[in-house]
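Appendix B. Raw example, untouched.
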Amino acid sequence: MMRKAEPIDLHVGERIKLRRRSMRMSQEKLAQGLGITYQQVQKYERGSSRVGASRLHNIASILHVQVGYFFADDSAPMEFDRPVPQHEDAVMDFVTSQEGIELNTAFISLLDGSTRQSFVRFVASLASTASGKVEERERAPRE
């Protein structure tokens, strides 16, 4: 019988994955550093296996962060029992994707605040234009 993943295990797993991917590190490389299989890393990242304290300490060392990093969440400190809205899942999926990491890495290299704001407005404009085209296609008569 498989145990149900606890919200804190899911959160810690997401943070492990986020940090690993932001460092462009493979699951295999992290696993090698821990002396485990990449499948076990996958289980940690999915929250289906709990990460023990000493293992989490080793993961933090390999990923060059403090252990507390895995528990941090600026948007909802320590609210692990709340349901995650669907849009938050989509945001997390994007942020941890290769495109999300590349976009965020490029964005943080923009040091000027006004340039960052211009970029955000530009992307928002593209998104609204794209969604308008989708709506137009949906309303168009079908042949």
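End of appendix B.
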